[in-house]
Amino acid sequence: MRDWLATDAGSLALIANHYQIATMLRNNFPFPFSIKNATDFIYRSKKNTAFNIQKAIFFKDKLVGAIGLELKDDVFKYNGEIGYWITPDQWGKGIATESVKLMIDFAFKAHPVKRIFAEVFSDNSASVRVLEKCSFEKEAILKNAIIKNGQFQDCYIFAIQNQHFLLPSNT
Ligand SMILES: CC(C)(COP(=O)(O)OP(=O)(O)OC[C@H]1O[C@@H](n2cnc3c(N)ncnc32)[C@H](O)[C@@H]1OP(=O)(O)O)[C@@H](O)C(=O)NCCC(=O)NCCS
User: What's the pTM value of the predicted model, to 2 decimals?
Assistant: First the structure.
């Protein structure tokens, strides 16, 4: 995994332009996914701050997906929301699982994060499996919380706790 480069835009537009990806994500992930969408995404990701960490995922030197962690604020300040996707022709190779594990490890070591959570559509069995393999626990089911493609779905909240978290002294 590495930070995004402006030169990734062409490959990103190619690998992201799949309905199978967009249909499992929030509506701010467009389909079709244009070069302009790719350029805008990479531009925003360059603002990688302590609050928003975005990484490109590579497998055998090929760009195959993306992973991000958004750190929350106010009373949720030690929470991070994780999101990820892999281009469909690379599914089932363990890439998402490995990427999520790396991101958790990085976040727990390098940032003040107590809890990392994911909000998953109930239709998304593959992502549920990824989170289970990464030792996330299912915390909640938000009944009919999601409307996607004109259909209601439940939203699953999965989370993992940083057992070694020490509260900063200025909290
Ligand atoms: C979810 C996603 C990231 C998984 O990526 P991946 O690299 O294929 O994931 P992995 O190979 O690490 O693991 C997938 C697991 O799900 C399982 N799986 C795949 N399809 C499944 C299905 N329909 N039902 C149940 N399990 C399924 C695989 O068998 C594998 O589990 P296993 O190792 O126990 O066999 C990918 O499908 C994707 O990008 N989907 C669209 C975007 C998305 O859903 N993002 C997550 C939003 S929360």
Answer: 0.96
